[in-house]
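hey so i finally got around to running the thing on that chain from the lab meeting. sorry it took forever, my laptop kept dying and i had to restart like 3 times. anyway pasting the input first so we r on the same page abt which one it is
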Amino acid sequence: MRERAFASQLKLGGPYLLGPAALEAAFTFHSNLDFREFLRPLLTEVQSASGQTIHLATLDAAEVLYFDKLESSIGVRLTSVIGGRNPTHATGVGKALLAAKLPDAASVDSWVAQYGPLAVRTSRTITTASALARDLEETRNRGYAIDDEESEMGLLCVAATVPLVFGALVPPLAISVTGLKSTMLSLGVDALGTSLTTYITEFEFGSRTSSGCSPRGGCARW
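ok and heres what got predicted. didnt touch it at all, straight out
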C-alpha cells in the first residue's frame, strides 16, 4: 500500500495514514458521483414496499430541490418534478432536513426571520416559527417527518434524512413516501415512517438489500 501511495507514515513505525493515491481516488469518486444513480436502488426498494410515490430532495435556502422522483399510480398526479422546488417548511423532506439542521426553537426563530414569512400552500401549512419548532421537535422524537396536507390537500407523506457516509462532502438529503391521505392512513403512518427509516438504515450503498417488509404484505417488525 505504501509503494502504491495508498498509505503513508509520518515516521518509521508510526501510524499509517491515507496516502495521496487514496485521497485522489476518494475525491475523484466524489466528483463523479451521481446521487440519483447512487441512491436509485434505495428509492426503488422503498417504492416497491410502499406502493407510493418517492422523492429524493435536498435543502436550498428556504426551498427543497428535488433530485429524483419515482411516481406511482396513486390516483392523483403530484405537482413535484425533478429539478423543481417547494417551500421547505411545507414538505416532509423539508421538515426532515430542517429537524436535523435546526436543533432548537432559537435556531428556528433565526431561520424564519431570515426566510419568512412562511409561504401558505394549504389551510394546514405551518405559518409560524413556534409551530414549526414544535413540529421539528416531534420529528426528531419520532425519527421521521410528516406532511399532513401541508403542501397539497388530500396528500400525506412521511420523510427521513439519508445519512450518507461522505458527511460534509455531500449535500443533506432526505427521502419521502407520498400518497393519498386515505391510503397512507390505511397503511399506517407510523408503520410507513418506521419502515422508511429502517430501509435507509439497512441499505448498503452500492448494492441492493432488502428487509423483506411491505406495508401491503406486512412485516413482522411492524
